[in-house]
């Protein structure tokens, strides 16, 4: 019996179809972190965008300091 190869849906294909990139944040953990409020569907995308910006800024700072490792101080 030959093993079947799984087809991988690449990020490029998803982007071409108008689908957003995979979220960095966890929807379940975000919901659990809130105590007294519900979480609207659009909140996840906005939170993900903020997190991606933070990572991008931290990466730029680390590279500027001639490091390849992100540290808490980069945030």
Structure summary:
With 75 residues, the protein is an all-alpha fold. It has helices at 11-16, 27-33, 41-64.
- The strand count comes to 0
Could you say which overall geometry the principal axes of the C-alpha atoms support? flat
Strand content: under 5%
Assembly annotation: single chain
Characterize the biggest β-sheet. none
The run of helices and strands is: HHH
Give structural notes.
- By secondary structure, this protein is mainly α.
- The protein has helices spanning 11-16, 27-33, 41-64.
Topology:
Layout: H1 11-16, H2 27-33, H3 41-64
Descriptors for this entry?
single chain, 75 residues, mainly alpha, 3 helices
């Amino acid at each position: 019996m030959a093993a079947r190869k799984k087809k991988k849906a690449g990020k490029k294909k998803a982007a071409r179809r108008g689908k957003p990139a995979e979220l960095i944040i966890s929807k379940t953990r975000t919901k659990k972190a809130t105590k007294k409020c519900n979480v609207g569907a659009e909140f996840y995308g906005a939170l993900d965008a903020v997190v991606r910006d933070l990572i991008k800024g931290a990466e730029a700072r680390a590279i500027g300091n001639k490091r390849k490792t992100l540290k808490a101080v980069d945030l």
